[in-house]
Write a structure and sequence with these properties.
The chain is an all-alpha fold. It has one domain (10-115). The protein is built from 3 helices and no strands. It has helices spanning 10-16, 53-77, 81-115. Helix 1 (10-16) packs across helix 3 (81-115) and helix 2 (53-77) packs antiparallel against helix 3 (81-115). It is elongated.
């Protein structure tokens, strides 16, 4: 299995959900399950874990975004509390689901990039 001379950037490979070594094979099997091995280049992806990083980044980014938007809506229109619940619950769940997979892909790709010097990889 040949290796590309220039590996893709961790950001572009992760956001696209592609293998961090070849940039062509799919990274995910299912919604958030990382494949054991890249079907294109054979990279063992089971060693490259993202840990809790993606969830932490989603919480921090989304928390700041939702609190800022909710504060702006409250100060601008002063809606009743049920409007806030109706607005921010689906927004938070939907945005978290949209952000989680790309962030996990970037974290797995960064893990691969920074562990390449490890002879056990």
């Amino acid at each position: 299995m040949g290796r590309l001379s220039t590996p893709p950037s961790p950001t572009s490979a992760g956001l696209a959900g592609r293998c961090p070594r070849c940039g062509r094979g799919p990274l995910f099997q299912g919604f958030l399950s990382v494949r054991d091995r890249c079907p294109v280049c054979g990279l063992d992806l089971s060693r490259h874990d993202s840990g809790d990083g993606p969830a932490v980044f989603v919480i921090l980014i989304l928390g700041a975004l939702v609190v800022g938007l909710a504060l702006w809506v409250e100060l601008r229109w002063q809606p009743p509390l049920w409007v806030h619940a109706a607005l921010w619950t689906p927004f938070t769940i939907g945005t978290a689901l949209l952000m989680l997979r790309p962030l996990k892909g970037v974290m797995v790709a960064l893990n691969y990039r920074h562990r390449m010097a490890d002879p056990n990889c």
